[in-house]
Predict the 3D structure of the following.
Amino acid sequence: QVQLVESGGGSVQAGGSLRLSCVASGNTFSSYCLGWFRQAPGKEREGVATTGILTNYADSVKGRFTISRDNAKSTVYLQMNSLKPEDTAMYYCAAGARLWFCGLDTYFYNYWGQGTQVTVSS
């Protein structure tokens, strides 16, 4: 069983930045597909960024968000710059068992964190 704990959410004005962190338990972190998702009230959960063999981003965040991982610390990050009010959502990190089986759909993930709220005001 893998446990994921997110942190770093908060409230920021449009144009600002936040960095989310997610620490994972377990000793096979380097073999995980890792992703960040978000869910706004009344909307479906959507993939934001993922890192496995390749790195992928949703079109809505390309050029503004950067996903990275530190295998030594079992941590995945999401650096969010130039934030917009439409980025407001609960953000979740997720882990999948196979580094090579990875994408922006929830289908690829077995484990989820509890979420951290990001609120961007105009």
About this structure: The chain has no helices and eleven strands. The longest strand covers residues 89-96. The CA atoms of residues 50 and 103 lie 6 Å apart.
